[in-house]
Amino acid sequence: MKQSTSIKVKTIINVSLLSLSSLCYAQKSSVVTFKNELAIEKKNELIVLKRAFLEAKLGKVPASKYVVFANENKQPILAQYDDLNGDGKWDEIVLLQSFVANQVKSFKISVSDRPATIKALVRANVRHRRKNADDTFGDILDKDVVKGTQPATDFSKQPLPPFLTEGPAWENDKVGFRVYFDTRNAKDIWGKTTTQMVLNEVGLDTANNYHKQADWGMDVLKVGKSLGAGSLALTFKNASGKDTLVRLGDNNFEEVQYVKISNGPLRAVFKLKYKNWKIAKHLAPVQVEEVISIWGGQYFYESSVSLKNAPKGAVLTTGIVNLHSKNSYEIDSNKITGLYTYDQQSENHDNLGMAILIPKSSLVSFGQTPNAGTGILNTYTVNLKLINGKTSFRFYAGWEKSEEFFKNKEGFEEYLKQEMKLMESSLK
């Protein structure tokens, strides 16, 4: 069983995994119980149940079958079935549930021919679309490959970029993000004032400037040459033994592959695979895989990064743009640490808080780039340990137009402290 904090919970169940007939499947059922051990509410808690865990309780589930959920009042529970490896068979089932303080919830689970019939409110979305020759945008793509030499769009010469909003965008009912599919390879923020999924259409009409506030929200961040909203870089020793910071971008990787893994209604997940990141002439190219997830009710996305061939001692560097912020602030709890900014730093000249939260065990250091003379500028940095080439972080964005408690620094900081408590205590 995997919770939203990526903490694995061992469950030992003695169940005989015998082949069952169709009739037995119709009769087979079990119960899964969850407990919120905190004395505070857990809103929109992501529950991820792996096929192996469910089959330990129900027996082997055929590829064509589904596991369905019902609450204690026998009402069906909305579930999302995600095929992570593309083999046509679901690997995980996702639930999104809220728990009051110390609440226990039990769900009856059983095998069915089809998912439960529930009218689903879409709360997470990811999309990537290419421009057609006639200046329309094509269908939403499941896969795409873009060269690392792809230039940034010069809007003084062409009104539309080659990709809708310049690259893949992802959102939930609270906030949205995008990544530029060009040599900048930076992440940006969509501030939202609607719970609706809007990023399939934003940017289609050049008459509607998404840098200006609309009914749905706006692009709230200026990225420049920074690491924006959690872009990736590597800190390592160069041939002279000096610490060197290199962005994943600036025409230093061969290509990036986009793969949509799942797309709502509860969670959206996609993968970016970077081929042959050339960080230095004397070092072998690094292979990078970033899996980005977002789910309903949250003001963050979660990034899980894997590197192959990273130099010994290298650390992953991510960060927060500081073009319009005067200070950064460190924040700690028992097991979680992070860095945040809060200032009038939105493109709307109003208040925006940004933060990166990570497990304390992942932290190498916090820092700051120069504001001139280097390839990465205007960034407060977070340096993370690579354990077996892997690390992860959450990037938060709190725009004052999205939520009342984001209108001042104290409200944003209190929100982050609450988030850290929730991250420390997964459901049991």
Automatic annotation (TrEMBL):
Residues 1-26 form the signal peptide. It comes from Arcicella aquatica. Keywords: Signal. The lineage of its organism: Bacteria, Pseudomonadati, Bacteroidota, Cytophagia, Cytophagales. It comes from the Bacteria. This is DUF4861 domain-containing protein.
